[in-house]
Design goal:
755 residues; Rossmann fold; elongated
Length: 755
């Protein structure tokens, strides 16, 4: 904004009546009740940096904070299992292990006339290509190593790293990582080796299109599954547990042999992660081996984004997961995990390095502090642990690979497409799940509706957006005069929220406010990479915002334009990565900032606290859906350039406008698909007025999807007998604020006549 001279006193003329001196800046240029704002430099960047520091501190605190979720009973193994069962169920839930598995009598041998199912052979065992049902229409696929003679010593699932093929971990071909499956087969174990989705980096586009962001196969599947409360990790754990199901079914159908078969899991790299998760969830697994994975997860935000589990670090690090296997044995067979460096080419940047012995030892020490080592594992677990320890020692000759010209890419694509199709089917069903979920809303009258909606607001706050329970600091408002026109004066304002976290924005105060008059406020929110000046500088007519904040101030509204943290490109996206593991999101602190902004606005003598509206464009429109839904003190909300069928936009893989194909990797919100699409968010805003502003050519969506979702909003307002409180306006044009009907909406529902 323009650099205006500092004024010690501002005298406003109320035309036709008198000269009045309402709220005025002091000699420093600060508003009464505020201290002078002395921050220099780019305050917006400082805001992002402060949130980053705060999140890192919260991540550090998460280890000690986990204790409240655990009530371990060490009186017996059964008592211990019972005491941690809620944690087991919770882990399965956040991993998306939720779908019924398909029973089967044995893996199917997969072969053709030119490529027989028998793919490898050694002196003591044979290797077959196999497939097995897992859940829905998703199958596990890989290799099975079967001893040629003698009793099966144990049943093992050996899981390779994402970039290690089953053939490599079986020793059939050269490849990264140890040959763990081969080594167990040589000891007389029957071994199943599943294919994992790999880290192949490719441009992503819907069928028939080119280009798009370059994402790994794993991130591509992760993005859409996450939005539906599922997870690539959960999908792959289900494939492992389907094998466990078969081992048990086979043993119990046999007339001879043990009804309790010996079952172990062992994994390398990504496979080590899956082995640990699988054994933590399923107590039928007698022992678990981890190679190249076990260590601190406090920097999980730096790892591949497909490892992101919403709320993981709230309860679990690797030590806690190992304690869920206890008193069964966990064996760390080595730390030399895969090395991964993923560039930022649209997908989330990431890196993996081998875990240091010190890091692994520190996490193991922490595991030992969580358990009572006097509770001994059973003999079966001890025997399997010995086998797992010996799995790193190759014995005998490598098996002979019998297949010629085998291309694992075809198998990889088949597995990827199965999972994608399953997710898309979940999307098709999600609208009915949301309908059932919202079934407790009482629309019989407005009072009952307001009461019944609170339970959903709390679910949205705590389970979807994430809530900082931290007490806020005193506001400590600071301000300085920034600009003035003949109609209003602008002030920069900062407000403290948490340590290192503050709110910042520009306040526009009309010059014609009469003494004792209380006016409505419109909080005008910018979008991606925006600044408050974009919406409130009359000399900066931007191509999107059209200075709508300044226009509203010209009409006589008090305007506050907050700075949001959607700046710094990768910087703010990394904030989401750091927030998610502790069950938070970008909006966890955006909401608390807005609560603080209203706290302060309500202290101003010229503000009517019951008439504070919200109006946001683009990412600001995204804010308009979430913040007023959680902050009932906002009297209304206008969503511009964002409203759409949000769940589909984050999940669809046949729609060109899907976020699956973009650089915006922080967009998915965990399990939003089964809880709150944009219509359900609008239900939380109701019965307050709600409006959508939409350009026909706005690339954030298409009219058909926008209209579909808004029809559900309109129906809800009609059920409440307040159809006049919701509107949608379309205009020829694109991604911008047009004002017009939205300004009329503000005038009508904030009960204000422009002056």
């Amino acid at each position: 904004m323009r650099n205006a001279s500092r004024l010690s006193k501002i005298v406003w003329l109320w035309f036709g009546l008198s000269i009045a001196v309402p709220l005025c800046a002091d000699e420093s240029g600060a508003l009464p009740g505020t201290k002078p704002l002395t921050r220099d430099g780019d305050i917006a960047s400082q805001l992002v940096e402060g949130v980053d520091r705060f999140l890192l501190q919260e991540l550090d605190k998460s280890i000690a904070a986990r204790a409240k979720f655990w009530q371990r009973d060490f009186s017996s193994a059964d008592a211990y299992y019972k005491s941690i069962e809620p944690n087991r169920k919770h882990l399965a839930h956040i991993l998306g292990v939720r779908d019924p598995r398909v029973p089967f009598d044995g893996p199917e041998y997969v072969g053709t006339a030119s490529q027989p199912a028998l793919v490898g052979e050694a002196e003591r065992y044979q290797i077959f290509s196999v497939r097995w049902p897992a859940f829905g229409n998703v199958t596990g696929e890989g290799l099975m190593l079967v001893p040629k003679s003698g009793p099966i010593k144990a049943n093992m699932v050996v899981i390779p790293d994402a970039d290690q093929t089953p053939e490599a971990i079986c020793g059939l071909i050269e490849g990264p990582g140890p040959t763990l499956a081969r080594n167990l087969a040589e000891q007389g174990c029957r071994v199943i080796v599943p294919v994992l989705i790999d880290r192949s980096l490719k441009p992503r586009a819907p069928p028939g299109r080119q280009g798009g962001a370059r994402l790994t196969n794993r991130e591509y599947l992760y993005r859409s599954a996450f939005e539906l409360g599922r997870h690539l990790i959960g999908y792959e754990v289900q494939k492992v547990l389907a094998c466990v199901d078969w081992f048990y079914r086979e043993a119990n159908q046999s007339e001879s042999g043990s009804k309790d078969p010996q079952i172990g899991v062992l994994g390398y790299g990504e496979g080590g992660m899956l082995a640990l998760y699988s054994a933590a969830i399923d107590t039928r697994i007698d022992s678990c081996g981890v190679h190249g994975y076990f260590g601190s997860r406090q920097r999980i935000w730096d790892e591949p984004i497909d490892r992101n589990v919403f709320g993981l670090l709230e309860r679990y690090g690797d030590a806690e997961l190992a304690s869920m296997v206890f008193p069964r044995r966990v064996v760390i067979t080595g730390n030399d995990g895969p090395i991964v460096n993923l560039p930022s080419e649209g997908g989330a940047p990431a890196k993996l390095a081998p875990i240091t012995a010190e890091d692994s030892a520190a996490e193991w020490k922490r595991y030992q502090s969580l358990v009572n080592t006097r509770l001994e594992p059973n003999e079966q677990s001890k025997k399997l642990a010995t086998l797992l320890q010996d799995a790193v020692k190759p014995q005998g000759k490598a098996p002979t690979f019998l297949r010629k010209g085998f291309d694992p890419a075809t198998r990889q694509l088949r597995q990827l497409q199965e999972m994608d199709l399953f997710t898309q089917q979940l999307l098709n069903e999600s609208q009915y799940v949301r309908q059932d979920f919202m079934g407790k809303l009482n629309t019989s009258n407005l009072d009952e509706y307001r009461k019944s909606v609170e339970q959903y607001r709390e679910i949205f706050r705590h389970q979807v957006i994430g809530h900082f329970p931290n007490p806020v600091l005193p506001m400590n408002p600071a301000s300085r005069k920034a600009d003035e026109t003949n109609k209003w004066t602008a002030y920069e304002v900062t407000l403290d929220v948490f340590p290192d976290v503050f709110a910042y924005g520009i306040l526009l105060l009309p010059n014609n406010i009469r003494p004792g008059e209380r006016r409505p406020v419109v909080v005008c929110q910018h979008g991606l990479e925006g600044r408050p000046s974009d919406v409130c500088d009359p000399d900066k007519i931007t191509p999107y915002y059209n200075s709508f904040g300044a226009s509203l101030a010209d009409r006589g509204y008090i305007v506050f334009a907050p700075q949001n943290c959607y700046i710094g490109k990768a910087d703010f996206r990394l904030l989401q990565r750091k927030a998610n593991p502790i069950k938070l999101s970008l909006f966890s602190y955006i909401v608390r900032r807005h609560e603080r902004i209203i706290d302060w606005l309500e202290t101003l003598p010229m503000v009517d606290g019951k008439r504070i509206g919200f109006y946001g464009l683009s990412y600001g429109g995204k804010t308009a859906m979430r913040v007023p839904a959680l902050v009932p003190r906002y009297a209304l909300s206008i969503c511009s350039g964002d409203f759409n069928e949000w769940v589909g936009k984050n999940i669809l893989t046949d729609y060109p406008g899907s976020y699956v194909f973009t650089f915006e990797h922080e967009m998915p919100e965990f399990d939003l698909g089964h809880t709150f699409n944009y219509a359900e968010m609008a239900f939380l805003i109701a019965p307050r007025p709600f409006m959508v502003e939409r350009g026909h050519d706005d690339g954030v969506g298409i009219d058909e999807m926008v209209s579909w979702e808004f029809a559900r909003v309109r129906r809800q307002y009609s059920r409440l007998n307040i159809p006049e409180k919701t509107e949608i306006t379309y205009f020829p044009g694109g991604h911008e604020v047009r004002g017009g009907p939205c300004f009329d909406f503000l005038d009508r529902h904030l009960q204000f006549k422009p002056r």
